[in-house]
């Protein structure tokens, strides 16, 4: 039981942080729970696709195998189904009415997947694994979700660029996720420094994207309130 709490604690903390960063129009708890559940359920098709792709990469050399498993098996499979879940959940939802909402829902979908994955890893690896993943893997999944949601949120409102932005919403998380896993899968000791630097980069880039869309949401809210005030008769 203690290990399950340890596995879920970072998920709850990140979910709460993202929720409270959405300052002007909180998303319905019901939809956020659905996003977490949708992310958790993606584990099933992901495992099937990962098994198939893993078999295709059998016989590769060490570094080729590390690249294949990082970018194709893990990053592509996981981010693809997270994206599908996100799209089906909110693309046509009336609740998706701000760019920042893309970040909120994409992060919650990612955290739903991360919760299941973390329980599996921590149950087998114990306390040390739980602490390490709380500082690296869970925030990384959240940041992959923030990256996805950043472009997904803009795609919903920038209609002329919607197609290219939706492509970026899938491709950029795959790229970041693949780099993250490749560094781990190579098993090279000197890459530990690179790994730490990359995790720091993920933190900074994720927070930057959140601030950027948060500022846009604040501007849009203030602009709408101003228009409403000006439209009222004296």
Automatic annotation (TrEMBL):
Signal peptide: none annotated. One of its GO terms (molecular function) is peptidase activity. The keyword Transmembrane applies. It is a multi-pass membrane protein. Pfam families: PrsW-protease. The chain crosses the membrane at residues 32-54, 102-122, 134-154, 174-204. GO terms for biological process: proteolysis. One of its GO terms (cellular component) is plasma membrane. Belongs to the protease PrsW family. This is Protease PrsW. It comes from Maribellus luteus. The lineage of its organism: Bacteria, Pseudomonadati, Bacteroidota, Bacteroidia, Marinilabiliales.
